[in-house]
Amino acid sequence: MKMLSEQAIAAPRQRVWEALNDPQILRASIPGCQSLDKEADDRFTATVVVKAGPIGARFKGAVSLTELDPPSGYTLNFQGSGGIAGSVTGSAKLRLREDGGGTLISYEVDAQVGGRMTQLGGPIIDATAKQLAGKFFSRFGEIVSGAKPAGSAGAQLAASSNSAAAAPGRAAASAPAHPGGLPMAWILATVVAALTGFLVGRGGGNPGSDWAGLAIGLLVIVVAGAAFEYGRRAAAPVVMLDSAGLRRLLEGAKE
Questions:
Q1: Where are the domains of the chain?
Q2: How far is CA 20 from CA 6, 27, 37, in A?
Q3: How many Å apart are CA 98 and CA 104, to the nearest integer?
Q4: Residues 6 or more apart from 19 whose CB is under 8 A from it?
Q5: Burial degree of 106 (CB within 10 A; 0-12, 13-18, 19+)
Q6: Residue 92: strand pairing partners
Q7: What span, in angstroms and rounded, lies between the C-alpha atoms of 183 and 217?
Q8: For residue 36, what are the β-bridge partners?
Q9: Distance (Å) of CA 119 to CA 50, 54, 107, 124
Q10: Are 31 and 132 in contact (CB under 8 A)?
Q11: What is the DSSP letter of 82?
Q12: 242 vs 126: which has the higher pLDDT
């Protein structure tokens, strides 16, 4: 597999050179990279998950740098094994040159793939390599130019989670609160209960019965209020008294 291309980076050449030797930036830029450790100034070890077509594998390998020419470029030699999925060996020549206020990276890759991955055929392997290279340089360029610092993907995910978690709170805050004071329905219920008790007591014909009936009516409303409060706290349904029900209640009391 051979690949030849170039990529513009909106950062000075010295900055790009330093980033190409920074394990943290490379780890954040390489698609599927699980680990990248610097063994020496010119040697790295890495673990990368790669998926090509229907085949996916975890490749563990080593990378060495030769033909070092700071800040103009180097040759990167790599070899990795993905178990039964296959293996990959090869090299990539990177050259950096100033381009206005930025840097133009030219790279030439020559790699050999072995094992089951060879069954995919050249076109699929080439397309996968180009896709991975495009993702690497896109992410690398954002980090080096300062448009997106390393690790910002995790921060964005956390921010999204926080926003989702805060949404119910915002919804609750926007919902109207229960108005304070004595509800109008309970004022009407108190009047009805008192009137009903008074009329029932008067119907008895005994002295003081009307006031006894009034007391009974008030007692009923107190009990009903306690029951309402218990039901509200237990999320029980509340029975509402409409105007028609109030009228039937008054008519029944007069009879």
A1: 2-149, 184-254
A2: 15, 10, 13
A3: 6
A4: 11, 25, 26, 140, 143, 144
A5: middle
A6: 76, 109
A7: 19
A8: 46
A9: 16, 11, 26, 10
A10: yes
A11: -
A12: 126
For tokens 């919902």, the residue is: 175
CA 36 to chain centre: 26
Q: Say if residue 147 is exposed, middle or buried (CB neighbours under 10 Å; 0-12, 13-18, 19+).
A: exposed
What CATH number labels 2-149? 3.30.530.20
SS3 state of residue 149? coil
At CA 86, angle to CA 84 and CA 88, rounded to 5? 155
Q: What CA–CA distance (Å, rounded) separates 141 from 227? A: 68
DSSP 8-state symbol, 202: H
Query: Span 27-52, mean pLDDT?
Result: 94
Structure pTM?
A: 0.57
Q: Give CA torsion, residues 232, 237, 243, 247, to 10 deg.
A: -100
Q: Which of 13-27, 101-115, 166-180 has the lowest mean pLDDT?
A: 166-180
